[in-house]
């Protein structure tokens, strides 16, 4: 912007200097000395003394002394004709000559009343010598009418196949549409909902950025594609912990980096810096089913591969894809559809509705961490500061809201602590061993209450023992009878962040359950086994050391204490029916 301003200033000063040299100061009152004869002034007229040049820039009035002399000559001839009454005594050729000269001067006055402006677009004119059309002053031009955004229907699907048609404005962003869907479906707005662009025929999907216009994205989607409404906890994970996000061997900087969080963020968000992501990727060859391992380099200008080993010399780099007019997608079923070497595939797709297979750039990483690194770097280099602004907007809104207007958050998002209410006032239990014993005592108290209810109440469909075994099915974190592969797919879709979990029925043991948990971008499974004590059924994760009367108590406990787990339970996978 500074370069543009300086160039405009220099251009303006140059124009002023040129106009000053072309103009001459105006004579006093725009008149000549009265002692000069009119006929001689018409013959002795010089360009540097032309009053037309003198007044051209100062005022629009155009006065020529030669015109007054010619009019006086014509008036004298007419007086002679009227006095003598003999038109033949005056040569008619002289009168016609004076009339013709006056008409030429009038035409010249009309064409030269405005300053001569060079035509910047001569090719738009009718002829080479035709003058440009006179333009109206900028102040007289009416402002362009502001067109209000129109409304359009958008169909959004959920994970269970249900859909909802929503009427939105044509300028609505993906964040605004997600908040509207959260309101309509009565979900908890924890700023982790996202809109997914899903292409079933191509086997591709990606999460829309919060600032993207939904209608514009829909215009680039084919008819069989659709939008999905889904959680994504890892959307801005880079801004929360950037140091551990990229391996050192994959990132090179144009300047020395100290490795701090602020330095990493500054290098990626600053458009003047030139970070590079480099490493080996499996690249699908065009027109073939085979994949080839290449050394790839991602820069702000695009994605390149080296034709000679790991060399990054300009003569050895070939462009694979451009960042500006493309978006990066996950490969849903890369091994089945594209014969990919593993399930960590990604694709760079142009932003248009009709594409050919040769326009897709299919890539495959060695593991999930490397794929996440490449895809996050692609987003950072393409959008830059926009991503950080999207990350900061929910925090700024939360700071502006009063404590009474703060939206309700899910239990997994709260900072839960163990409390002791045995005394007159409650206290926080800081010791993990004491917290575990308090949880055991609460479990025993629940068992005693259940025993009393068994004795006093009759057998009914809401029998406590039956209720304890089915009450967990009402929770969002329980996904029922799904396979191990399906549970892993749901975890990957909703973000590989620490503490993301779900519970499901065990396939090997009909009476057991499985806890699927993500830790360090790896998915692990823990079996929850039933055990009996004094005729009551409990559930345990650690071979009976810690027992719970139902799965809700088990989840609540491990949200406070990690116990035998690698981390605490923090976020639960959820599916919402629209």
Provide the fold topology.
Layout: H1 2-22, H2 38-43, H3 51-55, H4 65-84, H5 92-111, E1 151-157, E2 163-169, H6 174-185, E3 193-199, E4 204-207, H7 214-219, E5 226-231, H8 237-240, E6 251-252, H9 261-269, E7 276-284, E8 291-299, E9 302-306, E10 317-321, E11 326-331, H10 334-337, E12 345-350, E13 361-364, H11 368-383, H12 385-400, E14 419-420, E15 427-428, H13 432-456, H14 464-470, H15 484-493, E16 500-505, E17 513-519, E18 522-533, E19 536-540, E20 547-548, H16 551-560, E21 571-572
Parallel strand pairs: 1-5, 16-21
Antiparallel strand pairs: 1-2, 3-4, 3-5, 4-11, 6-7, 7-8, 7-13, 8-9, 9-10, 11-12, 12-13, 14-15, 16-17, 17-18, 18-19, 19-20
Helix pairs in contact: 4-5
Radius of gyration: 41 Å
Low-confidence stretches: 1-69, 82-90, 126-130, 404-414, 450-464
**What is the mean predicted local confidence, pLDDT?**
75
N-to-C terminal Cα separation, in Å?
A: 47 Å
In percent, how helical is the residue content?
Answer: 25-40%
Residue fraction in strands:
15-25%
Shape: globular
Number of strands: 21
Supply the helix-strand structural class: alpha+beta
Largest sheet: 13 strands, mixed
Protein name: Growth factor receptor-bound protein 10 isoform X5
Region (Disordered): 19-58, 104-154
InterPro entries: BPS-dom, GRB/APBB1IP, Grb10_SH2, PH-like_dom_sf, PH_APBB1IP, PH_domain, RA_dom, SH2
Family: Belongs to the GRB7/10/14 family.
């Amino acid at each position: 912007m500074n370069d543009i301003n300086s160039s405009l200033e220099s251009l303006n000063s140059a124009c002023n200097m040129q106009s000053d040299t072309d103009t001459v100061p105006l004579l006093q009152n725009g008149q000549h000395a009265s002692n000069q004869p009119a006929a001689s002034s018409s013959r002795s007229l010089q360009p540097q003394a032309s009053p037309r040049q003198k007044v051209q820039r100062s005022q629009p009035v155009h006065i020529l002394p030669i015109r007054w002399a010619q009019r006086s000559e014509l008036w004298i001839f007419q007086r002679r004709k009227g006095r003598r009454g003999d038109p033949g005594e005056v040569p008619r050729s002289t009168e016609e000559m004076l009339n013709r000269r006056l008409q030429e001067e009038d035409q010249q006055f009309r064409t030269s009343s405005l300053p001569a402006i060079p035509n910047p677009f001569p090719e738009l004119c009718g002829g080479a010598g035709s003058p440009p059309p006179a333009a109206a002053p900028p102040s007289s031009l009416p402002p362009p009418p502001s067109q209000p955004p129109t409304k359009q229907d958008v169909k959004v699907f959920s994970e269970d196949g249900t859909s909802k048609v929503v009427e939105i404005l044509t300028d609505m962003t993906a964040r605004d549409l997600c908040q509207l869907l959260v309101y309509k479906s009565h979900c908890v707005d924890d700023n982790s909902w996202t809109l997914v662009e899903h292409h079933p025929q191509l086997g591709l999907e990606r999460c829309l950025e919060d600032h993207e216009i939904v209608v514009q994205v829909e215009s680039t989607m084919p008819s069989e594609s659709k939008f999905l409404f889904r959680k994504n906890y890892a959307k801005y994970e880079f801004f929360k912990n950037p140091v551990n996000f990229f391996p050192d061997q994959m990132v090179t900087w144009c300047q020395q980096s100290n490795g701090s969080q602020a330095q990493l963020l500054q290098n990626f968000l600053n458009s003047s810096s030139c970070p590079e992501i480099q490493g080996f990727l499996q690249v699908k060859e065009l027109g073939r089913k085979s994949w080839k391992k290449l050394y790839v380099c991602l820069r702000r200008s695009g994605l390149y591969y080296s034709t000679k080993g790991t060399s990054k010399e300009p003569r050895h780099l070939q462009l694979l894809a451009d960042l500006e007019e493309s978006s990066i997608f996950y490969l849903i079923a890369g091994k089945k559809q594209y014969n990919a070497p593993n399930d960590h595939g990604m694709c760079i797709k142009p932003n248009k509705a009709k594409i050919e297979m040769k326009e897709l750039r299919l890539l495959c990483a060695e593991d999930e961490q490397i794929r996440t690194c490449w895809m996050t770097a692609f987003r950072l280099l393409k959008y830059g500061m926009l991503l950080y602004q999207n990350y900061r907007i929910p925090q700024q809104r939360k700071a502006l809201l009063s404590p009474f207007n703060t939206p309700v958050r899910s239990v997994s998002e709260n900072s839960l602590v163990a409390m002791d209410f045995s005394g007159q006032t409650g206290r926080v239990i800081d010791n993990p061993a004491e917290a575990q014993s308090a949880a055991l005592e609460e479990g025993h108290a629940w068992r005693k209450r259940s025993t009393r209810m068994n004795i006093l109440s009759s057998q009914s469909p809401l029998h406590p023992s039956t209720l304890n075994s089915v009450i967990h099915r009402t929770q969002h974190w329980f996904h029922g009878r799904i396979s191990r592969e399906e549970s892993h797919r749901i975890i990957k879709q909703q973000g590989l962040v620490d503490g993301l979990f779900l519970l499901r029925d065990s396939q090997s043991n009909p009476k057991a359950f499985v806890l699927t948990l993500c830790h360090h971008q790896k998915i692990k499974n823990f079996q929850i086994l039933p055990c009996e004590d004094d005729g009551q059924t409990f559930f345990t994760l650690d071979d009976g050391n810690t027992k719970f009367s139902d799965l809700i108590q088990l989840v609540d406990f491990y949200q406070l204490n990690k116990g035998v787990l690698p981390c605490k339970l923090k976020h639960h996978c959820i599916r919402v029916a629209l």
